Amino acid sequence: MRIGLGVVAGENDVTFVLTGPAVHLLDADTDELVDGDDIAKFRANLKALGLPFHVEKEAIPSDADWNADGHEVVPVTRERIADLVRQGRRLLAF
Predict the structure, then answer these.
(1) Distance CA 60, CA 19 (A)
(2) Is pLDDT at 7 greater than 80 in this prediction?
(3) Which of 23, 49, 53, 60 has CA 20 to 30 A from 30's CA?
(4) DSSP 8-state symbol, 33
(5) Strands (DSSP E) along the chain, which ranges?
(6) For the residues 72-87, what does the mean pLDDT come to?
(7) What are the residues facing 80 on neighbouring strands?
(8) Where along the chain do its domains lie?
(9) Contact at 8 Å (CB) between 28 and 68?
(10) How far, in Å, CA of 48 to CA of 33, rounded?
(11) C-alpha to C-alpha distance for 12 and 4, rounded to whole angstroms
């Protein structure tokens, strides 16, 4: 997320896609994740820039504390994720 934020700062079009366990980057408590204490700060910056998170529809948790900050979420299918990858000029995957 930090790297993506840096790419956005360079005035590049960026699409954030969260699949599988990566959807937990939008959990209310991310302290146990690597760089978890910084994730909320990065999310806030992305929200201020108006960048949505494209989230794999099947991986969206039903937990009440998921996406508690109300980030814009675009549910996407795996097929749509594949389309996004094909449309991009560059891809960073983690």
Answers:
(1) 9
(2) yes
(3) 49
(4) S
(5) 16-18, 53-56, 73-76
(6) 96
(7) none
(8) 2-87
(9) yes
(10) 23
(11) 10
pTM: 0.87
Tokens of 45: 């910056």
Mean of pLDDT values over 12-30: 91
Fold of 2-87: Hypothetical Protein Ychn; Chain: A, (3.40.1260)
C-beta separation of 6 from 46 below 8 A: no
C-alpha 29/C-alpha 45 separation (Å) is 17
The proportion of the chain whose per-residue pLDDT surpasses 70, expressed as a percent, equals 100
How many Å apart are CA 22 and CA 2, to the nearest integer? 14
Contacts of 32 (CB under 8 A, 6+ apart): none
Least Cα distance to 71 among 35, 10, 27, 13 occurs for: 27
Cβ neighbours of 58 (radius 10 Å): 12
